[in-house]
């Protein structure tokens, strides 16, 4: 039986970028994933995910996006397809950026200026003139930042997996890791539900929502939450086509609402909620969007994007975050078991970090300190630990 230097469990954005990075560092790498890539239930599987620099007062996440943006653009060339669309980003709000300085929008605006970027502030009139879908005048302040946009996340993961295979990563589809085999306190192999055993010098668990189930010692620090996503078929697609619209947030830290311009391939407008979500068991619970959530969408559209309010919702999905209790990722070696590392805990904001996740996780697995690694390390969190990702709407 072949023994890999590294065996990666899970081929979402955390796993695929880790496999790629470790392969590029010269290791032999195996990668396991159930079914196919992108997996239909994976968080990374979607038509679009937001890529934004704006993180409120949090300068570290903003700085992490600087190399990410460069690499998203480079991946378009590398992968031979435009999968990252730099439409820019609209942060619309009903409160004054200068009065509410610590709001997600106010602090993001200030940090962008501090870093020398040029966000373009707008009032209700300028917003409606430039982005006519926002015609109601409800949002009275905010800004547009030309950097950022969205990534076709499912297609990105698929293309990166192909690229990783070209570089020599050995991919095993239809394999579900079920048991970590240990010898003298060290993981030496993985048994799959399908009855196969894979041997490795080091195993990296990147199984998204299933991470706290494969490693129950993480259950006190992580939970799985489901969030509604809506795809709407616009009657007036030109109104929602970039540059008439960009990726947007609408008082997101107070409402949770955000959305995308017309998708270039799917021809729909995606609108979703970045909020607390519904806690669920990813293996058994239903992932459906409730009537109540449809009602909230309708109220939001009536108020904010009336031109979309009577258009059909053609697809919905409840997609699941792997939430750490504080909202930072979980990237570290296991504190007690040798030969085992974790790359997970995307907490609803991990995809945009794809271009640097591989190096963060590879460094942790090699026992190196990454300049942005500290707050994603193994830590003890309690149920009173506050969720710190500032765009996220928290009802309490
Ligand atoms: C509704 C929603 C909207 C989001 N929007 C954004 C956004 O706009 N911007 C952003 O940056 N982030 C966003 N995120 C977060 C982002 O999608 C995640 O942080 C990221 O995709 C997580 O990637 P992952 O690789 O950890 O998990 P996944 O993508 O879920 O991949 C895990 C993989 O592991 C596999 N797996 C599971 N169990 C096993 C096993 N036992 N053995 C082997 N393989 C296994 C799965 O099949 C899957 O392929 C959003 C997430 C959701 C749910």
Account of the 3D structure:
The protein is α+β, with helices and mostly antiparallel strands and 396 residues long. It has two domains: 3-44 and 154-222 and 325-376, FAD/NAD(P)-binding domain, CATH 3.50.50; 65-149 and 223-324, 2-Layer Sandwich (D-Amino Acid Oxidase, Chain A, domain 2). Helices cover 25% and strands 27% of the residues. The protein has nine helices and 20 strands. The strands form three sheets. Strands 5, 6, 7, 13, 14, 15, 16, 17 and 18 form a nine-stranded mixed β-sheet that branches. Strands 1, 2, 9, 10, 11, 12, 19 and 20 form an eight-stranded mixed β-sheet that branches. Helix 1 runs parallel beside helix 5. The longest helix has 20 residues, at 59-78. It is globular. It starts with a strand and ends in a 31-residue tail after the last helix.
